Amino acid sequence: MTHRPSPSAGRLPEFLVIGAMKSGTTSLDRYLRSHPRIAMPMRDVDFFSRHYERGLDWYTARWPTRDEPTTVRGETSVSYTMYPHFDRVPERIHRHVPAAKLIYVVRHPIERIVSHYLHKIYANEERRSFERVLAEERDDGPYLALSRYGLQLERYLDVFDRAQILVVPVDRLRALDQRFTTLQEIFAFLGVERTSDPQAFARVEHRTSQKGIKPGWARRLAQLPLYGALARRTPRRLRELYARTVSRPVAAPQLDDAARTRLTARLAPDVARLDQLTGQSFAALWGL
């Protein structure tokens, strides 16, 4: 289905954070929305992947209706780099916002797979052992495909100019001594003023070590209609205390040397392709 901008459609975004899942996008989203000239809706709008049939009016209604004309609009949806599970996303974005600037945050691909696996465990969506997952996972399966950053990036470079895409290793956002400089570079890429307050970017969101498996009653409670509104009005520290109290922590799976070697062999060609596409040295950064 092809959508054309209609007279009633609101203003489309100027930039998108396109992923990768479990690579620090939650923290980056919070850093971006703290800028006074950036307007963002809730995370994971997923219009160009999951909700394209809803049309542009639905999409543009996700943003505040009273943002200033000088405000830069953006959104974060990690499903935009989940090929082949969502296809033709770059083409859809280019059709409607061909001048969009795209930010792709990437993480050591094996670390991302481990975090993705734990995310599925916490959500009660994965019951297999990690060893079984690795044995059964195909190259286009969700765990491996989302860590094939070269593959995902190639899809965008088929329709977007390289200058429109900023690839950021999450390592630079994690490190306190690099985070502020990296965010200044991101703000410059987006065409908004740099900031002089490094304290605004001190927090890192959603570390895996802060999560755990919630019991059934807590998951059912979270599905009640008023739960979300109440959670948004509850101070962050109380929400975190509640989560730690009711959750059962899960240790990250450990790869033995043989399993890591096999997984590295499957991912290394894609990392080499990512280096070629970006002119950066991710293979050296990640030791792959």
Question: What features would you highlight for this structure?
Answer:
five-stranded parallel β-sheet; 44% helix; alpha/beta; 288 residues
Topology record:
Elements (H helix, E strand, L loop, with lengths): L14 E5 L5 H9 L4 E2 L16 H5 L11 E5 L12 H8 L4 E6 L2 H14 L7 H7 L5 H4 L3 H9 L7 E5 H5 L1 H15 L25 H7 L4 H7 L2 H11 L10 H22 L3 H5 L2
Parallel strand pairs: 1-3, 1-4, 2-3, 4-5
What can you tell me about this protein's structure?
The structure is a single chain. The chain has 288 residues and is α/β, with parallel strands linked by helices. It is built from 14 helices and five strands. The protein has helices at 25-33, 56-60, 89-96, 109-122, 130-136, 142-145, 149-157, 170-174, 176-190, 216-222, 227-233, 236-246, 257-278, 282-286; strands at 15-19, 38-39, 72-76, 101-106, 165-169. The protein has a five-stranded parallel β-sheet with strand order 2-3-1-4-5. Strand 2, helix 2 and strand 3 (72-76) form a beta-alpha-beta unit. Helix 7 packs parallel to helix 13. It is globular, with a radius of gyration of 19 Å. 30% of the residues are buried.
- Which band does the percent of strand residues land in? 5-15%
Task: Summarize the main sheet.
Answer: 5 strands, parallel
Q: Which radius of gyration do the C-alpha atoms yield? A: 19 Å
Strand-pairing-aware structural class: alpha/beta
Mean of residue pLDDT values:
86
Low-confidence parts, pLDDT < 50 over ≥5 residues? Answer: none
Order of helices and strands: EHEHEHEHHHHEHHHHHHH
End-to-end Cα distance, whole Å, is 41 Å
Q: What is the helix content? A: 40-55%
Strand order across the largest sheet = 2-3-1-4-5
Query: Using DSSP, what is the number of strands?
Result: 5
Helical stretch tally: 14
Backbone shape: globular
